[in-house]
Amino acid sequence: MKNYFETAFDLLDRVYRKGAFLKIVLADLPENAENRALVTKLCYGTVEGDAKYHYQIARLTQGKPLKPHVRLILKMAMYLLSDLGRPAYATINTAVEFSKRFDKGAASGLINAVLRRFLREEMTFVYPERRYERLSVQYSYPLFAVKRLFHTYGEEAEEIIRGGEAVNAVRFAKGVNGGEYFTEQGVEFTPSPFTNLFYAEKFSRNADYEKGIYTFQSVGSVAICDMIAPCERLLDTCAAPGGKSVYLAEKCTSVTAAELHPHRAALIEGYAKRMGATNLTVAVKDATEDREEWHSYFDAVLCDVPCSGYGVLKENPDIKLRASERDFTSLPPLQKEILTRSSTFVKSGGVLYYSTCTLFTEENDGVIAAFLKNNPDFLVEEATSPLPHKKMKYGVQFLPHDAKAGFYFAKLRKK
Ligand SMILES: C[S@@+](CC[C@H](N)C(=O)[O-])C[C@H]1O[C@@H](n2cnc3c(N)ncnc32)[C@H](O)[C@@H]1O
User: Fold this and answer.
1) Cα Rg for the chain, rounded, in angstroms?
2) Are the C-beta atoms of 217 and 247 separated by less than 8 Å?
3) Atom 27 (ligand 1) nearest CA
4) In DSSP terms, which residues pair with 256 in a beta bridge?
């Protein structure tokens, strides 16, 4: 059986070298893997602190070129030593022994030397002096994104970059008393601002999950559903994996959950079945394309568009590995196109909702501004939430450090 280090390395190697999504590779972690919880922590921690470790490695090796597996082993070991406080010599030994799997152990001496030097320096992290560069390394946040956040949010950007802790949020199905459920099970929990959502750090799936008693849904996702009014016919244009559609099916008479990718549409089917949402229909459809029978058909349409995802970096730290400034030029045109097409499916007097899980004006208020310019038959309506938020010109912006999630929401009424 593989040890924890080997298991985590094999998963992380897929993320680093093949661009796989961290959540997806972790879904392949066998139930009986050794030290499953530690493997998960090691994968998240290594990716989350990637640039911080990268910078120390460059310093400790005087910028020597390193093979990708050597760099990854060093990053993993640094996380174990510094952030997790694992026993020093056993950890170094595990990393060095593991490195012998490659190139007949050619790099094991270097790995040993770098990690021992890191220890001798009492695991001190050194950062660049200039503020934006320092924040970028310290919080492993892309430099272009640091600059953009300061431009939009001023001094608050530093807190945004530092972020909040990811929380384990459990949403109970309609009619289930979540507080009573947790109390009976002896699970520690704290309430959220939403009646059916609770934070329970140590709670993990049991048999009731498959029975649809509860689901795991982020507070951001629940907050968006909370701002959507019950109606008869609702269309969710970018719906997979289905968290919002399924929740909205509890509030609306019928929900059509559309999604571009068939394999992702299948996730909605599974989610709806598990939660017993029989009034939800799944459609495989490109949200930029027309469908004549949907013209002016829906009371409400939600566009939860693909976005750069900076509001959910704690849950998906691998976004930072793939981050590119090009997202800011490639995503807004798609987001505008989806919103514009979707607006034709809203009936007169109905509502068009727009949401993202990101923090940048270009993908949020900027998209709404461009839409309103070409669609004078839509008016902005105020949205509000019990979660802390900022009022922007058109929508509301939730920030990761005070709302536990970063996302944006706007509400537009068709005249
Ligand atoms: C932010 S996620 C949606 C999350 C979902 N609303 C939920 O709460 O579970 C965006 C989704 O849009 C899908 N998508 C991307 N481009 C699309 C398009 N042109 N048409 C429809 N869906 C699209 C992606 O595959 C992804 O599943």
Assistant:
1) 23
2) yes
3) 240
4) 235, 281
The CATH classification number of 228-414 equals 3.40.50.150
What pLDDT score was predicted for residue 30?
Answer: 84
> Could you tell which of 217, 227, 236, 259 is best to mutate to test the pocket of ligand 1, judged by most ligand atoms within 8 Å of the CB?
259
Residue 34's pLDDT is: 82
pTM tops 0.90, yes or no: yes
214 Cα–ligand 1 center, Å: 23
> Can you tell me which atom of ligand 1 is nearest the CA of 268?
9
First to last CA, the chain: 64
Tally of CA atoms within 13 A in the half-sphere of 380 that contains its CB: 20
Could you state, in order of their start, the residue ranges of all structural domains in the chain? 4-120, 131-162, 228-414
- 4-120 maps to which CATH number? 1.10.940.10
Handedness of CA 20, 22, 23, 26 (dihedral sign): positive
Rounded to whole angstroms, the Cα distance separating 166 from 79 reads 18
pLDDT at position 32, please? 82
Are the folds of 4-120 and 228-414 the same? no
Task: Compute the distance between CA of residue 169 and CA of residue 180 in angstroms, rounded to an integer.
Answer: 16
pLDDT along the chain (415 residues), means of 10: 93 95 92 88 96 97 94 98 95 97 92 97 95 97 96 95 89 95 96 95 92 96 97 98 97 98 97 97 98 98 97 93 89 98 98 97 97 98 96 97 93 97
Cβ atoms 77, 117 nearer than 8 A: no
Atom 1 of ligand 1, residue of closest alpha carbon: 306
The rounded distance, in Å, linking the Cα atoms of 315 and 165 is 9
The number of the ligand 1 atom at minimal distance from the alpha carbon of 302 is 6
363 lines ligand 1 (CB under 6 A): no
